[in-house]
Amino acid sequence: MPELPEVETLCRQLRTKIIGLEITGTFILDGKIEMPGNLKGQRVISVNRRGKRIVIGMDNGKSLEIHLRMTGRLIWQETRAVPPPHSRFVFDLSSNQVMLVDPRRFATLSLREEAIKQDEVVDALAPGCAEFLIAEGRNRRRPLKSFLMDQQIIEGIGNIYACEILHRVGLSPWRETASLSPDDWREMEKAMGTVLSKAIDCRGTSISDWRDLFGNKGDYQNELRVYSREGVTCLRCGGIIHRKRLLGRGTWFCPGCQA
Ligand SMILES: [Zn+2]
């Protein structure tokens, strides 16, 4: 599932290609996806990430939001091409195309007319997000990992990066959020920044089907220290990486250095 680094990678790549281009045609290939209004004739003026969503600003003041969810991928084509299997929409931008390929069909499109309130949730890469998490986590008795993955509180982190961040910071995925000190949260903010920034530099993690806008694999799967490494020696303490389920999700951790 695309998480913050993968979506940020797409936003950066889209920015180099589509800003200034006019949307000259929109084609829906899957009746399950709804085209929110008529986008034809709009010029793209910005591409931003909001959590795991891609927000494309247009010159009529509205924004198109693309949420890739489970298996969505965007593909850039310099010339008109036959859409690959599982394509759900095609946007023509002058002579170029952007396609959504999405085998499990959960990706969504929506149109925003108004500015988004910025203070409801915090982005995992927002400077100073530790202070927000201290306030949100103080009274909650829930496992730290599920808190980090709750998109209603903090946006951008899914299963892979939650495991990696918790291993880096040395905290157990099962720790209750209320048991963390303010300094623990500040260390967490640092670990989030380190892991997510490096993953962006690597253009994401291609363990299964993730590809960037140009069809290339990311490289962060070579940097993983704990995710999918069950039975392997821990690079921090020499212990053994374990895998257990936490609220239905596979969770990799080191009992030796995560408490
Ligand atoms: Zn360890």
From TrEMBL:
<keyword id="KW-0227">DNA damage</keyword>
<dbReference type="GO" id="GO:0006284">
    <property type="term" value="P:base-excision repair"/>
</dbReference>
<keyword id="KW-0326">Glycosidase</keyword>
<keyword id="KW-0378">Hydrolase</keyword>
<dbReference type="InterPro" id="IPR020629">
    <property type="entry name" value="FPG_Glyclase"/>
</dbReference>
<dbReference type="GO" id="GO:0034039">
    <property type="term" value="F:8-oxo-7,8-dihydroguanine DNA N-glycosylase activity"/>
</dbReference>
<dbReference type="InterPro" id="IPR015886">
    <property type="entry name" value="H2TH_FPG"/>
</dbReference>
<feature type="domain" description="Formamidopyrimidine-DNA glycosylase catalytic">
    <location>
        <begin position="2"/>
        <end position="107"/>
    </location>
</feature>
<comment type="similarity">
    <text>Belongs to the FPG family.</text>
</comment>
<dbReference type="InterPro" id="IPR010979">
    <property type="entry name" value="Ribosomal_uS13-like_H2TH"/>
</dbReference>
<dbReference type="InterPro" id="IPR010663">
    <property type="entry name" value="Znf_FPG/IleRS"/>
</dbReference>
<keyword id="KW-0862">Zinc</keyword>
<dbReference type="GO" id="GO:0003684">
    <property type="term" value="F:damaged DNA binding"/>
</dbReference>
<protein>
    <recommendedName>
        <fullName>Formamidopyrimidine-DNA glycosylase</fullName>
        <ecNumber>3.2.2.23</ecNumber>
        <ecNumber>4.2.99.18</ecNumber>
    </recommendedName>
</protein>
<keyword id="KW-0863">Zinc-finger</keyword>
<dbReference type="Pfam" id="PF06831">
    <property type="entry name" value="H2TH"/>
</dbReference>
<dbReference type="GO" id="GO:0140078">
    <property type="term" value="F:class I DNA-(apurinic or apyrimidinic site) endonuclease activity"/>
</dbReference>
<comment type="subunit">
    <text>Monomer.</text>
</comment>
<keyword id="KW-0511">Multifunctional enzyme</keyword>
<keyword id="KW-0479">Metal-binding</keyword>
<dbReference type="InterPro" id="IPR000214">
    <property type="entry name" value="Znf_DNA_glyclase/AP_lyase"/>
</dbReference>
<feature type="domain" description="FPG-type">
    <location>
        <begin position="225"/>
        <end position="259"/>
    </location>
</feature>
<dbReference type="InterPro" id="IPR012319">
    <property type="entry name" value="FPG_cat"/>
</dbReference>
<dbReference type="Pfam" id="PF01149">
    <property type="entry name" value="Fapy_DNA_glyco"/>
</dbReference>
<dbReference type="InterPro" id="IPR015887">
    <property type="entry name" value="DNA_glyclase_Znf_dom_DNA_BS"/>
</dbReference>
<dbReference type="InterPro" id="IPR035937">
    <property type="entry name" value="FPG_N"/>
</dbReference>
<dbReference type="GO" id="GO:0008270">
    <property type="term" value="F:zinc ion binding"/>
</dbReference>
<keyword id="KW-0456">Lyase</keyword>
<keyword id="KW-0234">DNA repair</keyword>
<dbReference type="Pfam" id="PF06827">
    <property type="entry name" value="zf-FPG_IleRS"/>
</dbReference>
<keyword id="KW-0238">DNA-binding</keyword>
